Structure formats: C-alpha cells, structure tokens
C-alpha cells in the first residue's frame, strides 16, 4: 500500500517540473508561441492549486479508496491525451485535466497514509518515505524530463504517467481497504467550494502573472485582490455554515498550523533553489538538461536521508519544536552559501555544499510538517486536512517562483544599468540577480525557523492517532 501511495504522490509532484524540460521540443513540434508556452505550466498549477480543498473534501465524502483510484484513472487519461496532443489547445486542456485529477489524488494519498499507518514506528517510516517523495519530486522531474526528452521525445514526459498510474492502481486495488462510513454522508458546502476554488485559482493566477508581467500590472494585482476578497468570504462562510468545507478546528490547532506554515515557507525556498540553481547550471556553467538533473541528485539523496532520520531518530527524541526550526536554519545556511556563486565558480565547491545542506535541512522540515499537519484529525475530515498540506506546498511554490524571480530580474536589470552590457557584465549581472533571490530565500527560511519555534508547543505530546 505504501508503494502505491508514494508512486501517486511522486507522479503528482514531479509532473509540475518534468514537462518544463520538454517545453522547447513541444513548442517546435506543435508550433505554439513563446507567449503561449507558459500556459502549459500554468494550466496544471491553476487547476491543481484551485481544486485541492474541494478534492480533499470529496475524498472524505466518497471514500479514500474510490477517490484514490478515480484520481489515478483521471491523471492517466489526461496524460495520455496530452501525449497524443496534435495542437496547443489539446495540450493545455490535458494539463488542466491533469491538475484537476491531481487535486483529488494528492490529498487522498496523504489521507490514506495518515489513517492506515497508526503504530508509531510504522507511521514514522511511512511518512519518511512519503515526505521524501513529496520533497524530491520536483528535482526528480527535472532529471526525468531531460532523459525522456533527449532519449525518446517530449511526449514521453506525459506518457510515463500512464505506466506509473497503472502500477499504482494495481497495487491500490488489492492493498487499500474501503473505509466504513460512520453516520450519514456529509453534505457538500457548494457555495464554500465555489468561493475557495475561485479564490485559490485567482491566487495562483496572480502569482503566475506577476512572474512575467510584474506586480504592478493589472493581470497580477487584479487576481490577487479578487483572491483576497474570495478567501475572506470563504472564511466567513465556514464559521457560520452547518457543514463547512474546511472545519475551522483543522486550522486552529497550534501544531497543525505550524505544520502548514512550515510546508509553505519551505516550499518558497525549495522552488527558488530549483529555479535559480537550474538557471545557473545551464546558463553560467553550460550544463545540459540531463547533467543539470544529475547535479540535483545529491540534494535528493540528502533530502531522503533527512526525512528518514527526522521520523525515526530526531522527532521521537527532540520533537517538532526543535527539529523543524533546525532544519529551516540549515536551509538558510545553504542559501547563504549560494549567494557567493560567481560566473566561474565550480559545481563541486560552489553549488554542491549548499545543495547538501538544503536537502538535509528541508528533508527534516517537510516530513515533520506533513506529520504535524495531519495529526489528531478526525477521520471524517482527514482528506480536507491533507488538502491543506498540499495547498500550502502549492501556494508556497507559486509564491517562491513569482516573488524570487521578480526580485532576481529587477536586481539583474539594475546591475546592467550600472555596469553596462558587455559579456562579462551580463554574466555577472545574472549571478548577482540569483544572489539577491538566495538572500531572500535565506530570509524566508530564517522567518520559518522563528515562526515554527513559536507555534509548536513546548512539550512534545503524543499525537492522537485517528482510527481506521
């Protein structure tokens, strides 16, 4: 069962980056413009981020096994459609459908994990493996995208999901039991679902537009303003409706709030690392896509090791209040090391030490936060609580990509204005822009360390284990 859940989570996470590597080849094959290209990425993130909370609630309503299999079938079908796309419109539609299926699949996978593994040792091992897949998926996507695009063609970055989904579905069919319902089926808060889905959709769209058009442009601030209004209206409705989509008690527990905050802030920095180290390796050090993916492998390995040590060694002895801030601090140190990169720095001495620190530190943060975010939740709301975990990760990634990219672009422009546009100045300007982004990433991790240290309870308490 663990294998099925981990495969599903890995497929959803890596699909956010695996297609990115294939975009130039897909553009040449299908003939769409540079302006259209961003919608291949944005279509997936909009549907995924906008529908996560609804997907989590649907999982609670129809049962986790049924929702898990439906999500896998939907994701596989959308991937097959995208792989066979003969035009831009079909490819975008397939990516939107992938995001919608992923919004059902991701929270259901985490809910299955949280309600199946209740013994402390089994739970620790399961969350360690699951969190490693969630944290490493983006980097694996870069590597896999390079191999598939260069070895086969861009369509296989989508077709590969069909094979993953078939294996996961076969395993899930025999290993995941049906959850007996206790009491009547809960009603779906349709107005609340519309408000939160539209609000999250507008939030992700605003950040996506800010990445390319800047924060002052109407396509950026208009969706962000609408998002704020919609989410405030959603929060107000949840406090007065008899059947809330997101029960307020899910968010009001301090440890769970700390878990959600930790995931969000860790994702801001991790997406920044994936973006700017990728740029640096390919543009400054002239790495190929495959070599760039391989360069991230040490970080992935340390992230997996950090996840396993957190669940099996650190959390039982030290508790969340020490483990998570320490992991954030290690990530901040790694970011500071990256600020020292120059156009002629080497991977071994310049990039690798930072990636190792960030991988190990954030591996501790992610697995600890995933456990905290789903701890002590009633079985009837575990799906929506899991959706909050995934939403935090998705929104953090959107913020990190948009905010850090904007800061780096502005810093690069200021440097060029002051130093001219010679080849040497252009190369130095790029690394200067990356350095500014890394400083902000370090600040984000530092803020995360302080915030989680304040939110987590002083004494580690055994988490109430939901019954299956």
The CATH fourth-level homologous superfamily of the largest domain: MFS general substrate transporter like domains
Q: What is the total tally of β strands?
A: 0
Q: What's the CATH topology label of the largest domain?
A: Growth Hormone, Chain: A
Cα-to-Cα separation, first versus last residue: 14 Å
Instruction: Estimate the strand proportion.
Output: under 5%
| Overall domain count | 2
Helix-and-strand structural type: mainly alpha
Main β-sheet description: none
Count of helix runs? 16
Average pLDDT metric: 84
Spell the H/E element sequence: HHHHHHHHHHHHHHHH
- Parts with pLDDT < 50 across at least 5 consecutive residues: 460-468
Radius of gyration from the CA trace? 21 Å
Tell me what the CATH architecture of the largest domain is.
Answer: Up-down Bundle
Indicate the percent of residues in helices.
Answer: over 70%
Features:
single chain, 468 residues, mainly alpha, Growth Hormone, Chain: A, 2 domains, 0% strand
Brief sketch in words of this structure:
83% of the residues lie in helices and 0% in strands.
């Amino acid at each position: 069962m663990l294998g099925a859940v981990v495969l599903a989570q890995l497929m959803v996470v890596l699909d956010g980056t695996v297609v990115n590597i294939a975009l130039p080849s897909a553009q040449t094959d299908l003939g769409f413009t540079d302006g259209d290209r961003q919608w291949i990425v944005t279509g997936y993130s909009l549907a995924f981020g906008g529908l996560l909370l609804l997907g989590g609630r649907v999982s609670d309503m129809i049962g986790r096994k049924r929702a898990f299999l439906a999500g896998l079938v939907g994701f596989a079908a959308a991937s097959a459609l995208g792989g066979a796309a003969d035009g831009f419109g079909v490819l975008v539609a397939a990516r939107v459908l992938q995001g919608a299926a992923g919004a059902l699949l991701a929270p259901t996978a985490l809910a299955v994990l949280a309600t199946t593994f209740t013994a402390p040792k089994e739970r620790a091992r399961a969350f360690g493996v699951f969190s490693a897949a969630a944290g490493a998926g983006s980097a694996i996507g870069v590597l896999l995208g390079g191999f598939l695009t260069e070895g086969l063609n861009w369509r296989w970055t989508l077709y590969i999901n069909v094979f993953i989904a078939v294996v996961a579905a076969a395993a899930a069919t025999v290993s995941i039991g049906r959850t007996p319902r206790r009491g009547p089926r809960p009603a779906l808060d349709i107005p609340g679902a519309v408000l939160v889905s539209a609000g999250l959709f507008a939030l992700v769209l605003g950040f996506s537009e800010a990445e390319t058009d800047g924060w002052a442009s109407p396509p950026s601030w208009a969706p962000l303003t609408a998002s704020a209004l919609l989410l405030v209206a959603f929060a107000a409705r949840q406090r007065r409706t008899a059947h809330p989509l997101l029960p307020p008690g899910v968010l009001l527990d301090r440890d769970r709030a700390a878990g959600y905050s930790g995931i969000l802030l860790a994702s801001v920095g991790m997406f920044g690392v994936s973006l700017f180290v990728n740029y640096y390796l390919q543009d400054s050090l002239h790495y190929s896509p495959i070599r760039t993916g391989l360069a991230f492998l040490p970080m992935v390995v340390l992230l997996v090791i950090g996840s396993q040590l957190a669940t099996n060694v650190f959390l039982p002895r030290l508790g969340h209040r020490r483990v998570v801030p320490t992991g954030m601090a290690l990530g901040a140190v790694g970011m500071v090391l990256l600020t020292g990169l120059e156009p002629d720095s080497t991977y071994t001495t310049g990039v690798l030490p930072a990636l190792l620190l960030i991988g190990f530190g954030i591996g501790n943060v992610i697995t600890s936060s995933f456990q905290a975010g789903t701890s002590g939740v009633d079985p009837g709301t575990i799906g929506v609580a899991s959706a909050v975990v995934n939403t935090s990760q998705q929104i953090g990634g959107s913020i990190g990509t948009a905010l850090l990219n904007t800061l780096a672009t502005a810093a690069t422009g200021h440097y060029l204005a002051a130093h001219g546009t010679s080849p040497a100045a252009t190369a130095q300007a790029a690394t200067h822009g990356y350095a500014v982004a890394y400083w902000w990433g370090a600040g984000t991790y530092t803020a995360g360390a302080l915030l989680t240290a304040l939110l987590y309870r002083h004494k580690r308490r055994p988490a109430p284990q939901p019954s299956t």
